[in-house]
Design brief:
The protein is mainly α. Helices cover about 60% and strands about 0% of the residues.
Length: about 100
């Protein structure tokens, strides 16, 4: 799965394109939309892995407390996940250090 691309997300369609690899992986787990308990469990794991990977790529280390927030983000609509990871990626490119929002 890839992390959102290099262009800022400007529309829901951009968000879905940015997160297309996750969407394909989620569909592959449950191609017929049966939504079994096992399929939902695997999909939740894929979503969380995607979010964790995006955070790690930005140099963000999770604590047990912030891992709870990552799980919450992973449970949001795919477009929301894409936008949150895009914000983090853009902040990293802008040189914002964690805990130092004014430094650019």
């Amino acid at each position: 799965m890839s992390i959102p691309g290099h262009e800022p997300i400007g529309s829901p369609e951009d968000a879905l394109r940015a997160i297309a690899s996750l969407e394909r992986a989620l569909r592959a787990v449950d191609p017929h939309g049966m939504a079994t308990q096992e399929a939902r469990r695997v999909q939740a794991g894929l979503r969380l892995a995607y979010v964790r990977h995006g955070l790690a790529a930005a140099g963000i280390e999770l604590t047990p407390y912030t891992a709870m927030a990552a799980r919450w983000v992973a449970g949001q609509p795919l477009e929301t996940i894409a936008v949150v990871l895009d914000w983090i990626r853009q902040a990293g490119r802008a040189g914002c250090a964690p805990g130092d929002p004014d430094e650019r």
